[in-house]
Amino acid sequence: MSRISKLWSFLTKPEVYWRLFSLALAIIFWLLATGDGTLGETERTITLGVQVQNIPADLVLVDPPESVRVRIRGLSPLVNRGESSVSASIDLAGAVQGTETYSVEVDGPLGISVVSVTPQWVSVYTEDVAEAAFPVTLVFLGIDRNRMMMEIRPSPAVITVRGPRSILERVDHVVAYLGIDPELNLETSFPVLALDAQGRSLDGLDIDPPEIRVIEVVDNGEE
Questions:
Q1: Average pLDDT of the residues of the chain
Q2: CATH code for 41-119?
Q3: HEC states along the chain?
Q4: From the CB of residue 122, how many other CB atoms can be counted at a distance below 10 Å?
Q5: Does position 57 have pLDDT exceeding 80, yes or no?
Q6: How many whole angstroms separate alpha carbon 134 and alpha carbon 128?
Q7: pTM value?
Q8: Confidence class of residue 192 from pLDDT cuts 50, 70 and 90?
């Protein structure tokens, strides 16, 4: 007996046939339940943020890509369940500094097809990464430093700021605000902010370390 004949003989056994029929029926009912009562094909337009992949280590993204509208098609239950798994991305491998345009790639689960992507091409602006060292200035909020019981200084006293060159060049000074009582707790950490010449905080920069502590300066100048 051939393999096909053996398989057919097995599938047509009553106990096997009815189990397969029950399974198929259960799948149909499940699809109907998740597809708002229909198995028909549907189309839907969703808005996706574009993920940036493989950006070179010596570049930083300054202007992120705009969102895209993606039209997808599939059986109604598959679209309902798989819509959240659809993603859009661009590949920046080999990118150089400046504004470049990239094709948007859209991926989705099995059973969902992509009808259109608007826009198909998006532009991003990247810059070289630069870094510089800055001393930390302590700023006392609501505290009369002259009445403090001890002299303090930041630890570490110098931090590293890293980010897009155009933003880094605007950094005038870095500060840590101390809003504490005169009974200074030396275990407290204070966040460090990078400010421009007008005292405005600058975003898009990495500060290392992002927080500092303060240490007491003893009379002989040693810790």
A1: 82
A2: 2.170.120.30
A3: CCHHHHHHHHHCCHHHHHHHHHHHHHHHHHHHHHCCCCCCEEEEEEEECEEEECCCCCEEEEECCCCEEEEEEEEHHHHHHHHHHCEEEEECCCCCCEEEEEECEEECCCCCEEEEEECCEEEEEEEEEEEEEEEEEEEECCCCHHHCCCEEEEECCEEEEEEEHHHHCCCCEEEEEECCCCCCCCCCCEEEEEECCCCCECCCCEEECCEEEEEEECCCCCC
A4: 20
A5: yes
A6: 20
A7: 0.61
A8: very high
pLDDT above 90 covers what percent of the chain? 47
Tokens of residue 32, six digits: 């109907």
CATH of 129-217, one of 3.30.1360.70, 2.170.120.40, 3.10.420.10, 3.40.50.150: 2.170.120.40
Which residue in 75, 76, 71 sits closest to 86, CA to CA?
A: 71
